[in-house]
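Hi everyone,

Forwarding the result from last night's run.
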Amino acid sequence: MRSRPNFHSLWIVVGVLAMAGVATAALSAPKVVSSYGPTNQDLTFEQIKASRMSVKVERAKQHAQLLNSRYDLSKKAASGVTMSGGKTVPAGPTAKLRSVTWEQLDRKTPEQIKATGVFPYKPLPFADHAEGGMLFPLMTTKLLPRLVRFDLDFDLPEHVLPDTAPAVFLTTRPDLGDVAKGRLITIDNYYEIFNGILNPKQLEGLRLLVTQFPQQQFNATEDRRTDRPSLGVTCFDCHVNGHTNGANHLVGDIRPQEFRHRIETPTLRGVNVQRLFGSQRAIKTVEDFTEFEQRAAYFDGDIAMAAKKGINILDRGSQVHFMAEFLAILDFPPAPKLDIYGELDRAKANASELRGEALFGGKARCASCHPAPYFTDNSMHNLNAERFYKQELANGMMMAHDGPIKTFPLRGIKDSPPYLHDGRCFTLEDTVEYFNLVQQLHLTAQEKTDLVLFLQSL
């Protein structure tokens, strides 16, 4: 007599095989890339720190190799010119060329440059692009140890950065000259320095600008990048004295991580004449930008993470207004060679500077986007620089398109290295070389020198 099949056992076998198949498929399936960070963290601070420290040395080594392969990082100073605070202005170009001279490169088409991989100003990765976050230069962390990250060191040499404690000039009191006088403005001294100079609203706005608020890497949770729980960062930790210290991070509004752009901190000088804010965001008012930073940018654009780590909701009618009122009186540094129209005074300028000014408004076409007197058109422009390099991964960053970039004012530009939105041009000479290639201007060596000298006079 034939036995009946054991359907119960059969279904168990089928179920086991099905589960095994699911497990195998799960192991082989591509990892899901989420727009959100892990808000429900299941690791302790000690575990997170150990994980970060395990990759710190190797990633720093890889990044240093990339920088040294692209740039000459030795210290070179421009002759006869200093920043407003007295620091020497770095000289270049610093970019290293590969089997080609600047003159030969100038004769190549974008397609030829791209095919041979010799473009010297490719997008610059963050010090650890896979990790990201706010990163401050050593000259700042020496004065403000609370900004030290245990997992990451700043990548650029100090001589290609602005003054440690930049000069502060006010539109309301130009007679005072530099109000900071070499002092780093913090919560400890802002009142002493500015009481009697600012009105009460401006003074309160400045207080908020030097007050710590939670941020993605600087907070009190287990998912932080400081040894001790942190109250956070201040606006003036990056925009030191209303200017910049070269601190950088990753833009918050792009995903996935490898497509995010490195962003250098721009100066806040001359905010009163600007109508766009954010290197690539085209935010229309400084009030909007202030709120945007606190609500989203501080947390890599992750609103869920902001809720966990301590979002600071500023009151638009008072706090935001007070902060903006102070920012609106931050002035450009004096430019004694310029007249009221932003043009060189022929009695004060030398021949090279005058030739540079003519190039700026003529052959070099700089004035098309940077018209006097403040040398910005308050617009966005896409240079399509990706014509010159291949889209490929570089230390965790995809070298893709830059997209539209805000036209930054050029007044006081010698005080603000490094240049471009990601800091890939360390000096004014590098910046001139970059635009000479991207705009296909075919400037001569003397014309480049004249243009740099004009820029130094602004």
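The longest strand covers residues 77-82.

Cheers,
N.
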